[in-house]
Amino acid sequence: MPDSGGRGCCRCCCSFIFTSGLTALFMWLSLRTTSPACALSKFSIPLDQTKNLTTLEFELRLKNTNKDKGVYYDPINVTFFDSPDRSRSIGSSIITKFYQGHKKKATKNGTISNISRDEVSRAAQGNGSKVFFWVDLATSVRYKILMFKTKRHKIRVGASVEVNGTISKVYPKDIKLKSNAGKIRSYCGKLGVFFANFLVLGLLSF
């Protein structure tokens, strides 16, 4: 006589594993986050020959690429260097913290005052035919998911900036600030991967 009770138990176990796996996978897809896109849209150091000190002017563009998650930015530290090897810092500027809604863009302007015009000019002249400066951006963000906030995730990105003879950004297009780090994965994402693997192994065992 067939063991109907055993088959029923197997069906229940398979159903439970399948449902748990799908639930975890849905959570992972819904709760995973991606880092904001950061770009430098303006960079200029006016060289007024009548003054020894000048001011660096810059503009950042920040985009929240998440479809349904807001971003809370901590104060953003923007540092500029006179070469890509970052041997000497020109100065730093702080952008105050703010909130950015999902799929929203923000433009932030900043200045760094009391920069030596002579030192900047010498650095530009001594770097060869093509002159590159460097911008470094560092901050931490929290993501708003429904009514909750995630823990802080550190972001540090940068890029080289080619300048012309007047020490302004050469190309009109935005310069993307990049990092070696990939997409940020939340603990829920790791949990989703675990249950997805558990689902596959469970089904293969029957």
Automatic annotation (TrEMBL):
Main location: membrane
Xref: InterPro entries: NDR1-like
Compartments where found: Membrane
Assigned GO CC terms: plasma membrane; plasmodesma
The keyword Lipid biosynthesis appears for this protein: no
TM helices/strands, residue ranges: 12-31
Alphabetically ordered keywords of this record: Membrane, Transmembrane, Transmembrane helix
GO biological process, alphabetically ordered: defense response to other organism
Keyword Transmembrane helix recorded: yes
Domain of life: Eukaryota
Protein name: Late embryogenesis abundant protein LEA-2 subgroup domain-containing protein
Organism expressing this protein natively: Salix udensis
Lineage summary: Eukaryota, Viridiplantae, Streptophyta, Embryophyta, Tracheophyta
